[in-house]
Specification:
The chain has 270 residues and is an alpha/beta fold. The chain is built from 12 helices and 8 strands. An 8-stranded parallel beta sheet has the order 4-3-2-1-8-7-6-5. Helix 2 runs parallel beside helix 12. The chain is globular, with a radius of gyration of 17 Å. It starts with 8 loop residues before the first helix and ends with a helix. About 2% of the residues have low confidence.
């Protein structure tokens, strides 16, 4: 049996979904931004997410032009940038958390920082940090080859996004090109806890994708309460929670932020 240290990102992410499924629940995938509200607090949050119930962690790499981020996540990224967080700093946080036994960690980033850093260099750096892959939401399907060619040989996952406006044939192609899981965007617009997910549409999309892929299907954008997580569990494999989690500890640091995060995640799983 492969250990956490030797298993590839693909294997570790698949195992996380399998453990959640065997427990009769959807995998919980919280998002936090590296460096928000400060470096030390984001490190403490990373350390605490696993014990608080996270199956997989999305670690946002702060960027000044976040196309898919709503006001909460964009503000978190700006706070992190103002505090001096960098891509290398985010990798260091991930490496420390991985060494401490964190669940699988995925980067959530945009293509420009990766391109400037170097795609192959970024893949090597994630591997060295013990990360399992990355979500890069602003890269269209036709432009994913460079990322996939760098990630696949290193066993890193590259989940791709399916939006409400994605035509069915294109959604099938995206699912076929995804690795790790397929990220289903619950509704139009940017990330936010202010708008309710459209579970009627989501159920139809999930049913269609089930016919063409065996990958887990995770739902994000607007997942903010226990009722949402319950609805996700009934139709899909993972619930991605970002804005509502950041809102839960906004304005706090240190142990207070960690305590608020724990209470919020406990409430989601109740």
């Amino acid at each position: 049996m492969e250990t956490t240290e030797t298993a590839t990102g693909v294997v570790r992410v698949a195992a996380a979904f399998a453990r959640a499924k065997s427990a009769g629940r959807a995998a919980l995938i919280p998002y936090i931004c590296a460096g928000d509200p400060d470096r030390a607090t984001s490190g403490a949050l990373l350390d605490a997410l696993g014990p608080a119930g996270a199956d997989i962690i999305e670690l946002g790499i702060p960027y000044g032009d976040p196309l898919a981020d709503g006001p909460t996540v964009a503000a978190a990224a700006q706070r992190a940038l103002d505090g001096g967080m960098t891509l290398d700093g985010a990798l260091e946080l991930a490496a420390r958390a991985h060494s401490a036994g964190a669940p699988p960690i995925l980067a959530f980033t945009y293509f420009n920082p990766v391109l400037q850093y170097g795609i192959e260099r970024f893949a090597d750096a994630m591997l060295a940090a013990g990360m399992c892959g990355a979500i890069v939401p602003d890269v269209p399907l036709e432009e994913t080859n460079a990322l996939r060619n760098a990630f696949a040989p290193r066993g890193l996952v590259l989940p791709l996004l399916v939006a409400p406006t994605t035509p069915a044939p294109r959604a099938e192609a995206i699912a076929a090109a995804s690795n790790g899981f397929v990220y289903i965007v619950s509704r139009l617009g940017v990330t936010s806890a202010a708008k309710e997910p459209d579970f009627g549409w989501i159920a139809e999309r999930v049913a269609a994708l089930r016919r063409v892929t065996q990958l887990p299907l995770a739902i994000g954008f607007g997942i903010s309460k226990a009722a949402h997580v319950k609805s996700v569990r009934e139709i899909a494999d993972g619930a991605i929670v970002g804005s509502a989690l950041i809102d839960a500890y906004a304005g706090t640091t240190g142990t207070e932020a960690v305590d608020r995060m724990k209470r919020f995640l406990a409430g989601l799983q109740s």
